[in-house]
Amino acid sequence: MKKTKKIFIGFAIVISLLIILPFLIPTQTYLHELERIANDKLGVPVSVASGHWSIFPSPRVVVNDIAVGKAQEVRVKRVEVIPTLSSLFSATKVIDLKVSEPIIKQSALALLSTLSNKKPETDGRATAVNIRHVSIEALQLDWPNTKYPIINVDANLTNMNALQSAKLETVDGALKADVTPEDGGHLILVALKKWTSPIGLPIFIDTGKLVMHLKANQLEIPNIDVALYSGKLTGNAIVSWEKSWRASGKLNVANLSVKEPSSLVSKSVYLSGNLFGNGSFSGNAKDAGQLADNLTANFKFKVNNGVLHGLDLVKVASLLIKQSNKGGSTEFEEFSGVLDMDKGSSSARQYHLHDLKISSGLLAATGEVKVKPNKALDGAVEVEVKRSVSLVAIPLVVSGTVSNPIILPSKTALAGALAGTAILGPGVGTSLGVKAGGAVDKIKGLFDGK
Predict the structure, then answer these.
(1) How far apart (Å, rounded) are the C-alpha atoms in residues 420 and 434?
(2) Residue 21 half-sphere exposure, CB side, CA atoms within 13 Å?
(3) Cis peptide before 222, with omega less than 30 degrees from 0?
(4) What is each CA distance from 57 to 18, 52, 354, 355, 441, in whole angstroms?
(5) Cα-Cα-Cα-Cα dihedral sign, residues 237, 239, 240, 244
């Protein structure tokens, strides 16, 4: 009985020491050293709020509230450093990392770009500390005006602390990615299911599959296969970042129902029909954060058997009077054109729709429209109403904004129509007046550089 009691007391003392011991070790000294080493390696300020040693459920160091960068570009709520017991007394320490609730700002991309260009400080031998496994819980990307999903990551590293394999998944399960070794690089398979794009318009993707090959400073995406809005988006792309960030690729769209995505752009005037098209894009930037803003693109498109909702082009072109152009619709057999995306003189992104053609049983129209960086519209359209007495094209001016477009006959066309009608009467006089007004518009366009 006494022996049992002594064993119990001894066991209680050991447990008490294991609980109390971590709080007796001067961790603040180690934290200061950790901050110094991190500052030297990263080249930016690193701060650690607190930390402590823990024995349960296994020996580990817990570090809280880490901030990286002058503006805290990266913040981490908690990091647990868990050494394997078998390596505690060996030359190379093998550890696992558990990272909780990291937040990465968009401005951190410049820091990550700089780090990716640094050569690893190694002579080819195994490092003194081998990070065997990293689990990241609730990773959040903090981008202005963009809400990204929360992500969990599970990664395995080599004895040189290089990525070996990884699994990535959003908390809602809409995006999954598997990373596996492949020929000196990595194969990345991305699967999308019921995914809403967090970038730009909230485009909804039914299913998607991307095959990627990562090697050195290049990511090749030979296969993009996405199902959305009853259609298909396919293509390929290459992204590289050896000296600067570069991207290029091609995209093809087939049988995509445009009613829902186009209504995301404008609720008042939008398209329905089936979209077909193809084009290419390219761009370069000093860092990854600027790459998307520097992309240029050229895309040829065609919409078959559709409707232009919210605007009756036949009515606008026929009445030749200034009035509200809201309401109505324009049915068409084909709407085609070219979309160019580039930067204007202000270095802000703008869009140029040109070689536009609309054809149906009632009308034929041609024109071009520019979408300025502030979403303002500037363009001209000529509409030929086939059921009218004269087949003269009516010049229309496009203005307003993307969300509230305005299309009305040009001032010179209106003036010409009134003058022609007054001199020669309705019909022929009106037609000749409109034609004269349209000619004046074109001459002015030449001198305006339009």
Answers:
(1) 8
(2) 12
(3) no
(4) 11, 14, 66, 68, 80
(5) positive
CA distance 416 to 431: 9
Report the residue count for the chain.
450
Take residue 435 and report the two structure tokens written for it: 């034609």
pTM of the predicted protein model: 0.79
Give the alpha-carbon dihedral of 384, 390, 392, 396, to 10 degrees. Answer: -60
Per-residue tokens: 160: 């040189």
Q: Nearest 5°: CA angle at 176, between 68 and 158?
A: 60
What is the full per-residue pLDDT of the chain (450 aa) written as tens digits?
554 444 454 444 444 444 444 444 556 666 776 677 778 777 888 898 988 877 778 788 888 999 998 889 999 999 998 888 776 667 777 889 999 999 999 888 777 766 655 555 555 555 577 889 999 999 999 988 888 999 999 999 998 888 999 999 999 999 999 999 999 899 999 999 999 998 888 999 999 999 999 998 999 999 999 999 999 999 999 999 988 899 999 999 999 999 999 999 888 889 999 999 999 999 999 888 788 888 999 999 999 999 999 988 888 776 554 445 567 888 999 999 999 998 765 567 899 999 999 998 878 899 999 999 889 999 988 888 775 545 567 788 888 998 888 887 766 555 444 444 444 334 433 444 344 444 445 434 433 544
Tokens, residue 379: 């363009």
The helices-and-strands tally (H runs, E runs) of the chain is 8, 22
Report CA-CA distances (Å) from 199 to 144, 204, 244, 280, 315.
11, 11, 23, 19, 37
How distant is the alpha carbon of residue 321 from its chain centre? Answer: 43
Beta carbons of 190 and 158 less than 8 angstroms apart: no
Sequence-distant (≥ 6) Cβ neighbours of residue 105 within 8 angstroms: 71, 72, 73, 74, 142, 143
**Which tokens is 6 given?**
């002594």
